[in-house]
């Protein structure tokens, strides 16, 4: 079906989202941080994790009290370069941003910094945090657990979290290297987009409790289904996706002495509670930053110059296409589909915030 898109202004969208979040009781600085990270995600073309979630996920949970507008965030540190943050069920954007800033701060002094977070909530796309390290001439890494929407290989139904990760490194090129991926075949947000647009799901993304593929994104079928781990089948390496999923659980949940798979089964109500892990590595602790960036340039150029398969014009690296979208959308606007536009209009009416985003 034809989907209508409206292009909106980046800075106006940040301002609008900030005002809406403030209306829920969030302090201005926290509301701005969350809005900025959300819109950054839309700039990169990750529509599954941007302002599409503002109304139905974040504001909804703030209104019910599941997410605290003014959390009492606390930190424990058992070593100079590491720490654990208790987010007091604050909005994940705020907790995740604090974690990465703390990791960067410790990396400035000790060469590396790592912070794991418990008792927090959905924080959007992992790249929003890994990229924060790059202006400091650092490498950034971020990962998060998600809702109980994935299936463990060999199991039936929703038996694992929608875990994701991002790794980012600077270069002298216009764009940085930025890997941002789910440990499943696709993020759950991609299914939400299909539900909005009516597009069919690619074969292999989702299966029902009996292991049969789901390709028609009808809500009654999707609610019974689960996302498949990266690889899809045993023959194609599904246990690699499962291994990545478990690695993220260990860094984000077990290391933080937080909720993970056993607790999710014992108390399904905890499935919306997320955990995060952020790490920053100071490049100068290994090699001069300019030498590293020159090495990155050579690496990128090598891949760009590889012989092309028939019909292929360009070989791109992770983060390259997203950066091209950032440049275009900063200039020409961010396209939002009509369902998202309507959800923002509803917030405008509910909170009496001017709908000035175009």
Topology:
Layout lengths: L4 E4 L1 H14 L4 H16 L10 H11 L9 E6 L2 E5 L5 H19 L1 E9 L6 H4 L7 E7 L5 E2 L12 E6 L7 E6 L5 H10 L8 E2 L5 E2 L4 H6 L1 E3 L9 H17 L6 H6 L7 E9 L6 H16 L15 H13 L1 E4 H14 L7
Parallel strand pairs: 3-4, 6-11
Antiparallel strand pairs: 1-13, 2-3, 4-12, 5-7, 5-12, 7-8, 9-10, 9-11
- What is the oligomeric state here? single chain
Q: Mean pLDDT across all residues, rounded?
A: 93
Described by the principal axes of the CA atoms, the overall outline is globular
Q: Specify the helix fraction band.
A: 40-55%
Q: What proportion of the residues form beta strands (DSSP E)?
A: 15-25%
CATH architecture annotation name of the largest domain? 2-Layer Sandwich
């Amino acid at each position: 079906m034809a989907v209508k898109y409206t292009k909106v202004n980046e800075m106006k969208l940040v301002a609008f989202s900030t005002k809406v979040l403030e209306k829920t009781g969030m302090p201005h600085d926290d509301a701005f941080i969350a809005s900025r990270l959300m819109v950054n995600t839309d700039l990169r073309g990750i529509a599954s994790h941007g302002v599409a979630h503002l109304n139905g996920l974040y504001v909804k949970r703030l209104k019910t009290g599941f997410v605290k507008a003014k959390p009492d965030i606390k930190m424990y540190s058992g070593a100079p370069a590491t720490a654990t943050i208790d987010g007091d069920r604050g909005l994940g954007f705020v907790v995740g941003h604090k974690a990465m800033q703390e990791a960067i701060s410790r990396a400035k002094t000790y060469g590396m910094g790592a912070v794991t977070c418990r008792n927090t909530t959905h924080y959007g796309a992992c790249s929003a945090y890994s990229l924060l390290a790059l202006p400091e001439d650092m490498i950034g890494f971020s990962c998060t657990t998600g809702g109980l929407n994935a299936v463990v290989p060999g199991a039936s139904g929703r038996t694992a979290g929608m875990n994701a990760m991002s790794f980012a490194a600077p270069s002298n090129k216009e764009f940085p290297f930025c890997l941002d991926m789910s440990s499943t075949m696709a993020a759950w947000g991609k299914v939400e987009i299909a539900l909005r647009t009516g597009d069919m799901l690619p074969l292999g993304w989702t299966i029902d409790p009996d292991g049969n593929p789901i390709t028609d994104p009808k809500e009654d079928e999707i609610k019974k289904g689960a996302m498949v781990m990266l690889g899809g089948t045993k023959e194609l390496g599904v246990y690699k996706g499962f291994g990545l999923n478990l690695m993220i659980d260990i860094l984000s949940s077990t290391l933080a002495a937080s909720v993970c798979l056993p607790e999710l089964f014992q108390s399904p109500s905890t499935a919306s509670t997320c955990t995060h892990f952020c790490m920053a590595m100071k490049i100068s602790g290994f090699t001069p930053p300019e030498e590293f960036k020159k090495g990155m340039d050579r690496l990128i150029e090598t891949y760009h110059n590889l012989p092309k398969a028939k019909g292929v014009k360009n070989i791109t690296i992770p983060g390259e296409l997203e950066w091209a979208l950032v440049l275009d959308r900063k200039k020409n606007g961010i396209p939002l589909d009509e369902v998202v536009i309507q959800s923002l209009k509803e917030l405008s009416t509910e909170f009496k915030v001017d709908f000035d985003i175009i």
